[in-house]
Each structure stands twice: as C-alpha cells, then as structure tokens.
Prior knowledge:
43% of the residues are buried. The strands form 4 sheets. Strands 1, 12, 14, 17, 18 and 20 form a 6-stranded antiparallel beta sheet that branches. Helix 1 (3-16) packs antiparallel against helix 4 (318-337). This protein is globular. The chain has 2 domains: 1-20 and 316-338; 21-314, no CATH class. By secondary structure, the chain is mainly beta. Strand 8 (102-110) and strand 9 (117-125) form a beta hairpin. The chain is 14% helix and 41% strand.
Amino acid sequence: MTRVAKVALAVGIWLVSGGVASASLTTAGVWNGNVGLSVDGIGSNLDPVGNVQASIPVGATILQAYLYSAGTPYPWYSDSPTTLAAYNSAGITLAGNTINNFSVMVGAVATPRPDIGQWYTARADVTDLVKSLVSGSATSSFSWAVTEGSLNNRIDGEVLAIVYSDPSQPLGSVALLNGGQDTGGETSTVNLGAPLGDPTDPAFAATLGLGISFSCCGQESTVKIDGSTLTDHAGNNDDGLEVADGSLITVGGLGDTPSFLQDYDNDHELYDLRTYLHMGDTSFTIFTQNPTSDDNIFFASLYLTGEITNVGPSVPEPASLTLLALGLGGLGLRRRRS
Length: 338
C-alpha cells in the first residue's frame, strides 16, 4: 500500500468513527413532557464552600439530579483531581451528605497549552438525595451547603442540575449535556423529533445555559448557533466567591436572565435562542471556542418548548464525505501513475 493510500485509509477510518469532533457536547439525558429545570453553581476556597440553590415546584416529581464537581487543571496544579477515586475519597458533601458515588468523568480534554494540560470534571447522580431533601416540603426554594473536603483548593466549584416534572409546566424538553469542550472549537448538533414551532410565539421558549470553570479576568469564549454569534463573552467567575484558582466558576441558571450578545460583565452564561431558531427547524448546531485555551466548558443545559431527541457531534454531510473520498482516491491514482 502506498503512503497516500495509507493516509486515505486512515482519514476514512477517522471520519467514519466520528473523529471530526473529538469532545463535543454529548447527551447526559433528555426528558420530554411537562418538564422543568433548576440549575445553580457555587465555588470558593472557603469551608463550607457556600450554598447551592434549587427551585422546584411544590409537589413536582424529581426525574434526575446531577452534581458536577469541576477540578482545576492538571498539570497546572500537580495535585488536581484526575480520577473518580480522588473525587470519591475527598469528602465532598451536599446538604451534609457525603457524595462518594461520582461515576462519570467529564472532559479531560487537552488544550493547545501544555502548561495548563487537562481538566477532569466528575459527575455524581444525586437524584435519590434530592428527592429526600424536597420530600414533603411546602416551599419551592431550597438552599443546600456544599463542602469540598480535602480538594477544597483544587476544585473550582459545583453545579447542581435538577430535572423535574410538574403539570404546571408547558410541554417541552430538557437536555443536560456533558462538555469538556476542545478549546480550539467544536460543533455539536441538537436533533429534534418534530419540526420546530414558531419562535415568535409568546409561548415559545428556548434557552441554553453553560457551566464554565477556570475562568476569570477577561478570559472569554465564543458561542455560535447555526453559525451566528450568540456571544463572544462567555466566562468569568460569576458563581465564585473569590477571584482565585479554586473559585473560578460560572453557570447559567437560577438568578440569571436569558440574554444574548452581552458584554463580559453582563454575560452570565444563560442565553435566549429564540431569534436564532426558525419555524420548521429539525436540528440546530452549537459551536463553542475558547481562543485563549484556558477555560473549561464542562456542562450545558437546554430548555425548549419543542422535542429534543439527542445532542452529539456534528459530522460532514454525506456529499462532503464523498468529495473527500474521491479527492483522496485521485491522489492515490496520481501517486501510482507517477
């Protein structure tokens, strides 16, 4: 096999296996029906770290709750957590309950900056715990203390994401997404089960929230929807209590007003997508990029009065793949002829 043929075969395998996007937003879960979403974050080097908030209608059914814990990067800090065992043994707590069931590592994506290296974010299923905390409550607002144990200075903070069902909610979809975005830029596709309704309808809603760690002081990320710029200013430590490593976290959620095209200080990582979507859409794309290669987009949430089916890597259109294959084949023929 010639060298060109080997390259063609390798590229072909890479494309077929989904190598076009190495760490796009991926689905942690999708829920449809009369569903709602509560997301909040907290970060500090204090002990306890602070309180994470939740807003859940009285009598609602908890469908899913995840706690994300976002470590500082390794080897920037040689003692940053890099394994699930490290998170599970640290003594992280929520409302006084030890969280030692972290089971999914989110991200661990290398950046173009070897001095920073990789981020390792852990995710725990805390559904049963949240159910017990809200059971029988006569209030819809909750505040629970978070501690980070021995990793207090090496975790930028936590995000608590809760999905619930309640008859008071309109029909729609909630998607929770694992990140770990390639700072050089990645595109993910949101697939819909039915053509989208009219985004200009007052009852239509579409919001995107991002969770970002190790961000402050002018470090910004770009987000685009179907190629149109949603923001150039995602980032900062809006939910961190100090400007210090171990407290640099922001998440779009409770207390934030959905917006778009804000400046850095007023961008709180919760975005209104209505003007970027169109009636009849069956999918749309989300592009993220961090030009300074020093922010970690580790989480995202979507709420839509439509039917989300899944979110995953964007791949080239079949025609593009065909053209590429023909081009590589032509290179191979030219090599053989020479």
